[in-house]
Amino acid sequence: MSIDHSPLVEHYTASPSISACTLFESSCSPQAVAEAGIFFHETQLRPGSTMTLSFSEEAAPAILPRDVADKVPFTNLDDVLAAFDIPAGSAEAEQVRNTLSRCQAPPIAGEVKSCTASLEATVQSAMRMLGVGYHAGGDVWAVASELPRAGLPRQTYAVAAVSPVHGDQYVSCHTVPFPYAVYQCHVSLGGYGSFKVSLRGLRDGSAIAALAFCHFDTSGWNPAHPAFEVLHTKPGGSPVCHFTPYGNLVFVKTATTA
């Protein structure tokens, strides 16, 4: 079956993605995570505290409509490499392999997850995880960090305000490296909380609103997760909090109309 490549990238180039580093099973470089400053302690989530952060430029591959996504290979590595002329053994091929492996791996204990390759499939998957119908209205809404795609330079940011994102259940959808937009969505049955954090850059005065999650139960996480090294904790230890990178989506289910 032929593929219409018009909405796809012309040449897929491997690029670092901090988004995938926030997944429970992540094994990203602790150095890259430390430089980004994306992980922090719960005690820092208060007005007046400061954090050294950098928000890197994020790749923005095409979000495919379902009719295109259904024709593009996703599950088989060789098929994906052939469809996008990605040389075997290249950095790009390794990124594709890592994403497919992550998507096909079983979820950790207490987690429900899925990988989706179209906007419609992403929304439907999130709705199923939240236990509501696709056409349900009022009790599910989406939220994301307000960040520029081009990123922001590394500097010290002051926390200006913190407010909870009220919800009974959350589904987080993270972008993962691929020639087109693929989201890994997951919901954890363990304790966690979501917050809107207003930050102000002390060097250039830039103001941003970032979505943050605090995970209170990390006992099922990959012991090699970089957050543990950066925050000097371990699985099941002190809570791990992180900001949600550009392009990630969170679907929030509330008991009453939002």
UniProtKB/TrEMBL annotation:
InterPro entries membership: BURP, BURP_dom
Residues spanning the membrane: none
Pfam families: BURP
Start and end residues of each BURP domain: 39-254
Superkingdom of this protein's organism: Eukaryota
Name of the molecule in the record: BURP domain-containing protein
